[in-house]
TrEMBL record:
Its EC number is 1.14.13.-. Gene3D superfamilies: Naphthalene 1,2-dioxygenase Alpha Subunit, Chain A, domain 1 (3.90.380.10), Rieske [2Fe-2S] iron-sulphur domain (2.102.10.10). This is Aromatic ring-hydroxylating dioxygenase subunit alpha. Its cofactor is Fe cation. Keywords: 2Fe-2S, Dioxygenase, Iron, Iron-sulfur, Metal-binding, Oxidoreductase. The keyword Metal-binding applies. Residues 51-157 form the Rieske domain. GO terms for molecular function: dioxygenase activity.
């Protein structure tokens, strides 16, 4: 007897309905974290039409240095050309479409296609294409450019033909805060990649709050206070002494910034614009200098024109994929890249003064210890949450009073998706 199995086709997800019924102040429904359809929509709308932080200038310090970045089906080359300008191109040969550069980073004199050796300068112009007719116009077949911008040593690109125009205003506001750190000439001391088995939005949501910090991040709290957008009413009695120390450190940092002539305004525009961001200055605990034991420095040389090691942590949050910590003696740069509905790459880069010598001015293990531990702890939290949201028993829950940056991220995301759906 032959048994015939009839497959039941799963109905297509009604994305518009899922988006429109999102309850403000609550986490997202499960499909936002598990659906292949929403993941592909995220690649198109969020990562295809917004500015994407991808690297620091310190990663490509010399002419010909490059990094490649993959976003879904897209691959982009970020390269410093012979005139020291940062450029971005589609990582596709104009001949028959072969991928040009397969490594994540490197250095080239020219960009040469491995298939038929079409050759491009680092400004994207085509200089060699064999066996073409006399009518062939090389100028028409340069690499396809991608919009790219630098802000204080940070590199962003946008895949859209019409990127969000508010980036100019963001750049004008943020760059004066970054220039004293002189990130353009900084040196990469270390870089790590980890793959978290969780949706990219869960990675970002986890980053946008410190509600979990006092339980989950003991290493981080050797220097950081576990307060983020806490009012006095939010602080439980057990944490009152720590909160008082935090307020005293905050007042001392304000005085230090004022004495240094450092910009004072902080800005929180996480969900009110296409290029959502937040810039704020955090005091550090203990010695107040850096992430060493008791808040001590982890690099002897201070960045840029910073002269006082007790300069706190200038923090920048960017939608959709990055966050940054700029300290007196080093900077830590994070960005995420979605790999699948349930996998996300998290890259962390540590920058130090260009003249800082490993083993003399800093030790890599000491420099990276706090954030390596924290990244691994966050990885476990994200993966546990991914398991939870994939469970049929999951229903969206309400955010706490100290998770408004999470709500702002989710609200920004939903606005962008809803706008794309018309």
């Amino acid at each position: 007897m032959t048994v015939t199995h009839t497959s039941i086709e799963k109905p297509s997800l009604d994305i518009a309905s899922v988006v429109n019924r999102r309850a403000a102040g609550h986490s997202l429904e499960a499909p936002f974290y598990t659906s292949q359809e929403i993941y592909e929509l995220d690649l198109d709308v969020i990562f295809g039409r917004h500015w994407f932080f991808c690297a620091t200038e310190a990663e490509i310090p010399e002419a010909g240095d490059y990094v490649t970045v993959n976003v879904g089906p897209h691959s982009v080359i970020i390269v410093r050309d012979d005139d020291e300008e940062i450029r971005a191109f589609r990582n596709v040969c104009r001949h028959r479409g072969a991928r040009l550069l397969d490594q994540g980073c490197g250095s080239v004199g020219n960009i040469v296609c491995p298939y038929h050796q079409w050759t491009y300068r680092t400004d994207g112009s085509l200089v060699f294409a064999e066996y073409q007719p006399s009518t062939f116009d090389r100028e028409q077949f340069g690499l396809r450019p991608v919009h790219v911008r630098t802000v204080g040593g940070l590199v962003f690109f946008c895949l859209s033909d019409e990127p969000p125009s508010d980036f100019d205003e963001f750049s004008r506001f943020v760059e004066p805060y970054l220039l004293p750190y002189d990130l353009r000439t900084a040196k990469v001391a270390h870089q790590t990649d980890i793959v978290e088995r969780g949706n990219w939005k869960l990675v970002m949501e986890n980053n946008r709050e410190c509600h979990h910090c006092d339980v989950s991040h003991p290493e981080l709290l050797t220097a950081y206070f576990p307060f983020n957008r806490h009012s006095e009413e939010d602080v439980p009695p057990r944490m009152r002494p720590l909160y008082e120390r935090y307020k005293a450190a905050e007042a001392a940092l304000t005085a230090t910034r004022t004495a240094a002539g450092f910009p004072q305004e902080e800005r929180r525009e996480l969900d009110s614009r296409p290029t959502g961001f937040q810039l704020f200055h955090l005091p550090l605990d203990g010695a107040g200098a850096s992430l060493g034991k008791g808040g001590e420095q982890v690099c002897k040389k201070l960045l840029g024109s910073i002269t006082d090691p007790k300069f706190g942590d200038l923090s920048l949050h960017m939608q959709p994929n990055a966050w940054f910590h700029f300290l007196s003696d080093h900077a830590v740069v994070f960005w995420v890249q979605p790999l699948s509905p349930g996998e996300t790459l998290v890259r962390t880069t540590w920058l130090v003064h260009p003249d800082a010598v490993e083993g003399v001015d800093y030790d890599v293990d000491a420099l990276t210890a706090v954030w390596k531990a924290t990244n691994d702890q966050d990885r476990a939290l994200v993966e546990a949450t991914q398991c939870g949201v994939a469970n049929p028993g999951y229903v969206p829950g309400p955010y706490s009073t100290v998770e408004d940056d999470v709500e702002a991220f989710v609200n920004w995301y939903v606005k962008r998706i809803r706008s794309s759906l018309g």
